[in-house]
Structure formats: C-alpha cells, structure tokens
Design goal:
With 519 residues, this protein is an alpha/beta fold. It has three domains: 247 residues, P-loop containing nucleotide triphosphate hydrolases (Rossmann fold), CATH 3.40.50; 94 residues, Helicase, Ruva Protein, domain 3; 98 residues, no CATH class. It has 20 helices and 14 strands. Strands 2-1-11-10-9-3-8-7-4-6-5 form an eleven-stranded mixed sheet. Strands 13-12-14 form a three-stranded mixed sheet. Helix 5 packs antiparallel against helix 6, helix 6 packs across helix 8 and helix 16 runs antiparallel to helix 17. The radius of gyration is 27 Å and the shape is globular.
Length: 519
C-alpha cells in the first residue's frame, strides 16, 4: 500500500511555522497595502511579493509619520515625493518647517511659497491664533520652559504667568474669551514679549525699593526673556508679518528658519507655528474630511523640539487623530526623536541605518524582528522598512520591507573633476541634495552652501576640484573638513594633497597678496 511510505510523527507548531510553504510572506495582506489606489499615496512595492503600497491613514491609529535614515539614504526624497502626490490625490496643503533652508529651492521650483522667518519677517509670540489668552499663556510658558528652563524656578514661572496676563489686560483683552474687540468693534492688537519685559522691569523697580527678595528672581527672568527681545534678535517680539492662514492654505509652503541666529530661536519659531496650526485645526474641525489629510506639517532634523517628552510634537503624536492634520518628523539620528513619538506614530519609514545603537533604539521602540534589523543594515539608497500601527494590533504584520521608495523628484548629480591634478579617474559625483546636506553638517551656512551650488549650476553641474577648494576656503571652510568631505567621496589622499597644493599655488599666482589659509 502507498500509505506504507508515510511516517506519522508529532511536530511542534513552531517547526511547522518555520517551513516556508506554510508561511505567508512578512507583509500585510494586499487589501491593506493596496486598498483604493485613487485614495492613497503611492510609496513603492513590497520586497516580498512586489505588492504596490499606497499609504492611507484609514487603517492606522493616527496619520503621523516618522522618517529616519542616514544622510543620503533618501529622507528628503521620500518627503518631497510624498507631498507632491498628496497634493495631487487629496489636494492637500503642506508646510515644511525648514530648519536649515534645505527645501526652499525645491519648493520654489515646485511653484510653492517660501516665507523666511528672521529676514524681515516676524512672528509675535503673543498672537492668540484663535485661542483664549488663558490658553495661549499656558502654551507660551510651556514653550519658554522647554527652551530656557524657567519652569524649574517656581517664582519665575509664576512671575512670567502674571506678566503675560497683565500684558493682555493692558491691551484690552478678556482673558477667558476668544472674542477680542475694542469699543468700536475693531480687532484688538496683541501685546508683545517686549511689553512683558517692560512690565517685569517696572515690577522689579518696585520690589527693589521694597527690598524684596523677589527682585532677584525678576532680574533672572528678565535676563532669560531678553535673548528674544534685543534689537536684531526680536523676531518673536514684534507685530507679526506672517499670516497663519497663508501658511496652511497656500498649497506647498516652506517656512525657512535658517535666517534665525541659533537653535533656540529656530525651536521657538517651530513650536509657535505648530501650536497655532494645532489650534486652527481644532477650531475648524479638520477631522470632517473622511480620512483625507488636508494639511501635512514637516519637521526635519528638529532635535531640540522632537526629543523632549513634554514637547507639543510628542503630545500631538500621542493624541492621534484629534487635530486633523498629519505631522511628518524626520531625522538622521533616531535618538534625537522622543521614544514616545516612535511608540505612537501611525507610520515609521526606516531607511538605511548603520549604527548599532541607533538600531537598538529603533528595535526597542518598534519591536521589529532580527530579520528586519539585518535587512536595514544592508539597505541601499531608497530601500526602507515600514512600521505601521493598525487599528487592530496583532492582526497583520506591522513591519515590512519596501523594495525602494519610488519618488517623483528628478535626481541631480554634481561632478567634481579630478583631471586637473592628473587623476586618471577623471571625476567623482555626488547627488546635489547630499552635497548640500553634507556641507551644512560640516558647518557651512545655508547662504554659503547656496554659493557653492550656484557655481556648479552655472557650469552644467561640473566643477574642478581646485576651483572648489579655493571657493570653500573663501567661504571659511577648514582644511580638515575639506579633507573629510573629499575622502567621503572616495578621493585618495594623494589626489587631495595635490589639489590642495595646486589651489595654494593658483591663488598665489593670481594675487601675490592673497594666501589660502587652509587651516
């Protein structure tokens, strides 16, 4: 009998599950990945079954997105492609809170609007954005606590609250009302942070005369606030020149923060805009959009406001769909983003990560398998793991691999010619966006990076290495950082030494008084 050939034995179900014929590939089912292609944002195809993946928040706990990956892995490429498609499919608006000015050129090319904060534009920290003064005061105190630590000093925090209340009252505002008009029915003009400092200074003089111990606390508080009110640094202490409605309803908008002098100023600008947007979405109830996102807010490399567990960003992600817009937080360093964001974001895109401690952090937060971890280590440009928090946890695989992000933005390469130093290789290339991002990381300002980009653009994306070194030096770039940059491109030490020497000789030959510092 044929049955004589069969042997029956007990087998543990874990052994059965390990046999590929009985395993569904590690990805959610097609009806979740694919859905209605006319109502989702196309991202790419899965690695396991080549299934098209359309991002749609209807199946997710919330519409917020985190994107992480090393420089050059495809973060900005993913963001740009995503926003372009969202504008086509859903007619969604998008605002990029642009920390380093990296998106402004692309936004201009895409017929969007660039608003540069700190270059003649102001944002009054005491604007209400549709809120009651009491609510706005609480937000202002929380923001200043995050940036200055005022909350660690109870007397200073109480004095700040009192001065803010007094500033609004002096301007004619009712603290518990959203309707703020004068006797003739005209909208009231909000006070500014300068008014708050003035009120505190008047209070200090009275306390000094009374020989009160509180005078010193007032002095300390004034010192913390004056960094935002000094002439030239008063970007948040003057009447607003930026319209919130313009920010969130003008299609694609880049809020360029690169003109602000430091990280604290940029963080204050970003937090203030996010708070205003959050309130605007709440009052207009953008949730009545049947799952379609009407506004995407992008925050790229904003470690100062993404890492703190008390930040508004963390609160928005934790509260899910409540505010009716999608927050996109991106960083090359996952540890610069609060773990609460990873744990609560509806979607996380993980591009190439090469540091073990970063992977430990991600795996601990998202709980993906060792198989996924090994794949991430070997990713090329544009490959990604996607983690999704579904409404019904455990029903589907939550982390799966994309073959690559299929983007919309055409890639542009810059070519650095080496033949001027006798190198037989001729040239090396680097993607334009990576070139710009890397030079920013090495300490060049956005304006200086723009100047180098312009040189390439004027020469059909080609520039010889000697000319590039001369221009880098003129812009104040240190020799060790030049060498680091060129070595990352794979240029050998001998070629770099020749190029540096040729640059020195060329400058001396053109102008005997000129000296390349090449520090």
């Amino acid at each position: 009998m044929v049955f004589d050939r069969f042997v029956f034995k007990e087998v543990h179900n874990s052994d059965i599950g390990a046999r590929n014929p009985l395993n569904y590939p590690p990805q959610p089912p097609p009806e979740i990945l694919f859905g209605d292609p006319t109502d989702g944002i196309y991202i790419g195809r899965t690695d396991a079954l080549n299934t098209p993946f359309y991002w749609n928040p209807k199946e997710l706990t919330n519409p917020h997105i985190v994107i992480v990956g090393i420089t050059g892995s495809g973060k900005s490429y993913t963001i740009k492609s995503f926003l372009i498609r969202a504008s086509i499919v859903w007619e969604a608006n998008a605002i990029i809170i642009d920390w380093a000015g990296e998106y402004k050129e692309w936004v201009t090319q895409s017929k969007g609007k660039v608003i540069a904060l700190g270059k003649g534009n102001y944002l009054n920290l005491l604007d209400l954005g549709g809120m009651k003064p009491y609510a706005r005061i609480q937000q202002i105190v929380e923001t200043l606590d995050l940036l200055t630590g005022v909350g660690r000093f109870p007397d200073q925090k109480r004095l700040l609250e009192w001065a803010l209340e007094k500033a609004y009252l002096e301007a004619g505002f009712k603290l518990d009302s959203t309707q703020q008009f004068d006797e003739l029915g005209r909208p009231l003009e909000p006070p500014t942070l300068k008014d708050v400092v003035r009120i505190l200074e008047e209070k200090k003089e009275l306390e000094v005369q009374a020989r009160s111990f509180i005078a010193q606390e007032i002095e300390n508080l004034i010192y913390k606030l004056k960094q935002f009110t000094r002439p030239g640094d008063d970007f948040f202490a003057n009447k607003s020149t930026i319209s919130l409605d313009e920010l969130i309803s003008s299609g694609l908008v880049d809020l360029d923060l690169s003109g602000l002098p430091n990280e604290t100023m940029r963080a204050l600008g970003a937090l203030t805009v996010i708070q205003f947007i959050k309130e605007k979405m709440r009052t207009e109830d953008f949730r009545k959009t049947q799952g379609k996102i009407r506004l995407f807010v992008v925050i790229d490399e904003a470690w100062k406001i993404s890492k703190d567990e008390n930040s508004d960003i963390v609160m928005i992600v934790r509260e899910g769909r409540k505010y009716g817009f999608s927050l996109i937080v991106a960083s090359q360093n996952p540890t610069d983003i609060a773990e609460a964001i990873f744990s609560n974001a509806g979607t996380v895109f993980i591009l190439k990560i090469k540091f073990e401690n970063y992977l430990n952090y991600l795996q601990g937060s998202l709980r993906f398998s060792d198989y996924v971890r090994e794949r991430i280590l070997g990713f090329g440009v544009g490959q990604a793991a996607v983690n999704m928090a579904f409404h019904t946890p455990g029903k589907y695989v939550q982390t799966f691999i994309l073959e690559r992000i299929e983007g919309e933005e055409p890639l542009r390469d810059y070519f650095i010619m080496l033949n001027v130093v006798g190198d037989p290789m001729g040239s090396v290339s680097i993607r334009r966006d990576i070139f710009r991002a890397r030079l920013r990381e090495l300490g060049l300002s956005a304006e200086k990076v723009d100047k180098l980009s312009t040189l390439f653009d004027k020469n059909s994306n080609h520039l010889d290495i000697v000319t590039l070194i001369i221009e880098m030096d003129r812009l104040g770039m240190e020799r060790k950082k030049m060498v680091e940059f060129f070595k990352e491109l794979g240029i050998d030490d001998q070629t770099i030494i020749k190029a540096l020497a040729r640059a020195q000789a060329q400058v001396k030959g053109v102008d005997k008084s000129a000296e390349l510092k090449l520090r």
